[in-house]
Amino acid sequence: MENQPDVVVSVKGATIYQNGMPVLSDVYFDVHKGEFVYIVGRTGSGKTSLLKTLYADLPLYKGDVEVAGIQLFNIKRRDIAKLRRRIGIVFQDFQLLMDRSVADNLFFVMRATGWRSTAKMKQRMNEVLLRVGLSGATSKMPHQLSGGEQQRVVIARALLNEPAILIADEPTGNLDPAVGEEIMDLFMKINRSGTAVLMATHNYQFIEQFPARVLKCEHGTLLDSTLHNFDLKTLF
Ligand SMILES: Nc1ncnc2c1ncn2[C@@H]1O[C@H](COP(=O)(O)OP(=O)(O)OP(=O)(O)O)[C@@H](O)[C@H]1O
């Protein structure tokens, strides 16, 4: 990937394992800078396992995978921390620290990822909260926010270190459809400003509404809509 600066994720011949069992084999795909890519597939088809492998929550035993310039095979702990600083991760369950304010949730991540200057941290916090439309929320506790607002804070948190890519696992799965649509809009806006997005979803309507390249986990491997003709109706 060093020779391909436009590639944010490069997967060549990977096998994705879960508990020692292969879930997906012969996985090949790239994600380019600024691209938006969906991952779909039936329950249990391997979407989450694939994403977890990309952010080094599951080990890579086979294949050549590089994410944000970091090789994942035999990755060292130090490089895992570096990898997580270069990517943003958004889950279905919002995973905010519930006993801390929005500001403290964001400061916590900034301190853990090497930020030191309080003035710079405050400035960055204001920037990311503005981007997700939550400027006034710094002193709020998570329970004072709606589900959609909590997910916006998670997206703001994921943006803190200007990641090259947002990896999102069913980010609208726990939200009402209308709120989910607003979150999709936000992802699209962030994507248009240059951040790549790789998003697992079960929501076929969003793919119709916000069309983009689709990767499909099926029969133990990954199919790519740019290489195979998918009928959207058979995606799930
Ligand atoms: N912690 C785990 N331990 C063992 N097996 C697991 C674990 N998590 C998932 N699996 C298995 O790995 C396979 C892939 O699961 P995975 O969660 O990646 O699928 P998914 O496509 O994300 O599903 P969903 O759409 O339901 O989130 C399934 O057979 C699942 O049962």
Verbal overview:
The two termini are 32 Å apart. This protein is of the alpha/beta class. It has a single domain, classed as P-loop containing nucleotide triphosphate hydrolases (Rossmann fold), CATH 3.40.50.300. Strand 1 and strand 2 (21-32) form a beta hairpin. The chain has helices spanning 47-54, 77-86, 102-112, 118-131, 147-159, 177-192, 204-209; strands spanning 7-18, 21-32, 36-40, 62-67, 70-71, 87-90, 165-169, 196-200, 213-218, 221-224. The longest helix has 16 residues, at 177-192. The protein is 33% helix and 26% strand. Adenosine-5'-triphosphate binds at residues 18-19, 23, 41, 43-49, 217. Adenosine-5'-triphosphate (ATP) binds next to helix 1. Belongs to the ABC transporter superfamily.
Task: Please tell me the overall pLDDT.
Answer: 94
Number of helices: 7
What's the CATH C level?
Alpha Beta
User: What shape does the CA trace take?
Assistant: globular
Overall radius of gyration? 18 Å
Give a brief outline of the structure.
The chain has 236 residues and is an alpha/beta fold. It is built from 7 helices and 10 strands.
